[in-house]
Design a protein that fits this description.
This protein is α/β, with parallel strands linked by helices.
């Protein structure tokens, strides 16, 4: 046994690299093959419950403020939230506060349409608006006069011609605001310049590194929970997946023939967890091997 443990320390590193690669690739390529248990954070539950309390026909403003570099963390939570909202027949309005955000928003909507879960009509069920420069100034403008900031949607259709824009003039006309961000502007600016002054419920999904800055707003109740990076995205994906699975044959907003998928964050978390576990095992075996080899000498 001792000799076997000593020999483990001489394993070719190429073999270790292959095992790590497989540990990452298999959960990503076959997400249903490995499903690790996930403990849902209380802030994720608050977000889920806050959205669940909204009613059919309510209006939710989504702020996209992230790009390609942070897409793996933030984009999955955007997809999961859109599924949750459309399953409840909620009207969705998407504004973009980063130059790359219109691309992210269009991709998110396309992914939702490709699932064939919902029968959606642009301008009736959802609306997208192009990027506006200015950061917090745009947020202040939305808070006071939405139609002064956005006179048309991303297709060039005038606001007045969109059914979904009936009775929408400022942030006060929305029932909820959700911010997806990877920097500035982010949830802090939405709290300070729009939602707190106008008393509109706000929640956020952001990168893990931003969570510490958001904690004071969560504790004060100015943020209704938060989705924290990829773990938060995976937790929310799981909750939404379970909900839709239960409602698939009962909810008239869902197409019963559609195939439900669990989401990319869940698969990425499994890949991350398995690869980390494998690395810990190799570290332990390496130290044991080193211990016995030194003892023999």
């Amino acid at each position: 046994m001792r000799n076997f443990l000593i020999k483990l320390g001489t394993i070719d590193r190429k073999f270790i690299f292959v095992l790590i690669a497989l540990a990452v690739l298999i959960p990503l390529l076959y997400p249903n093959l490995i499903e690790l248990p996930i403990k849902v954070d209380k802030n994720t539950k608050i977000v889920f419950n806050s959205i669940s309390e909204l009613k059919s026909g309510d209006k939710v403003l989504l702020s996209f403020a992230y790009g390609a570099s942070t897409k793996p963390e933030v984009h999955p939570m955007a997809i999961a939230l859109l599924k949750h909202l459309f399953a409840k027949d909620i009207k969705v309005y998407i504004v973009s506060l980063w130059p790359e955000s219109p691309i992210m928003a269009n991709q998110a909507i396309k992914e939702i349409i490709d699932t064939k879960l919902f029968n959606l009509e642009e301008g009736v069920d959802y609306a997208l608006f192009d990027y506006k420069t200015g950061g917090f100034i745009v947020i202040k403008g939305i808070a006071e006069n939405f139609r002064e900031v956005y006179k048309q949607d991303h297709n060039g259709n005038l606001i007045e011609d969109l059914t979904i824009m009936d009775d929408i003039y400022s942030v006060s006309d929305f029932d909820f605001v959700f911010d997806f961000s990877a920097g500035v502007p982010g949830n802090a600016e939405w709290v300070q310049y729009a939602c707190d002054p106008k008393k509109i419920p706000l929640s956020s999904g952001c990168t893990s590194i931003m969570v510490t800055d958001a904690i004071p707003y969560i504790e004060s109740g100015q943020l209704k929970g938060i989705l924290a990076g990829m773990p938060g995205a995976a937790e929310y994906e799981k909750m939404v997946y379970d909900l839709l699975q239960q409602q698939l044959n009962k909810n008239s907003n869902l197409n019963k023939d559609a195939v439900l998928t669990k989401g990319k964050a869940l698969a990425r978390m499994s890949a991350q967890s398995v690869s980390h576990l494998l690395m810990v095992i190799f570290i332990v075996l390496g130290n044991v091997s080193y211990y016995f080899s030194r003892k023999n000498n």
